[in-house]
Amino acid sequence: MPVLVFDLDDTLYPELSYVHSGFRAVAEFLSPLLGVPAEALAAGMIAEEATMGRGEVFDNVLHQHGRWSKALVGACLRTYRHHIPALALYPDAERCLTRFSSQPLYIVTDGHKEVQARKVTGLGLAGRVRHAYLTNRYGRHRAKPDPHVFDLICRREHVAPGEVIYVGDNPRKDFVGIKPLGFRTVRIMRGNYAHLEADEAHEAHRRIHSLDELTEDFVTSLCTPPRELAA
């Protein structure tokens, strides 16, 4: 069986659940400072993120209550990044990891290395995959689409790229760096990029809408050379 490698955010769990978990942690931190119930602060941050994005959520909540300072914004960011998140896998991800539990499984994910590590821990994935590669541990230049950590997986498993399947959701970066090297790719159509159309270079070899579609027959056929299929 091929080596299966998964993206993390919006592939194995809904990334927005981490964002909301972080907002609740920041709300608990700010509540005694601002004299506002944590539930109200969290609800306000979640509502702003839904309409305006998350870029200035902490700045805005502090401005609204007359307590903005660079130091306090920094404290909010640290609280957000260092909190222990309450997360759960997508149900189809849980089934998929169970289905392939006897196979070599890996995670490759970009982002703040401490944040991503806490996500892996919070989801209980450390004991279910052979390794979770957090690309920022190797330097930001090793983030996708750079193929560095995928090459590490090949060396670790003693396999060729054509025996490795990567499942991700973001066609802007997940596949374009590894497809030319022979890695096989699957795009799951959910999350922020579900409706993004990509050119051939950026699109995966296959699309799926649920990890339930990732069956043994599916992965075997994806790694079978075309000449063998034709035969």
TrEMBL record:
InterPro entries found in the cross-reference section: HAD-like_hydrolase, HAD-like_sf, HAD_sf
Range of residues in the leader sequence: none
GO molecular function per UniProt: metal ion binding; phosphatase activity
Gene3D superfamilies the UniProt entry points to: 1.10.150.520, HAD superfamily/HAD-like
Keywords of the record: Hydrolase, Magnesium, Metal-binding
Name of the protein in question: HAD family hydrolase
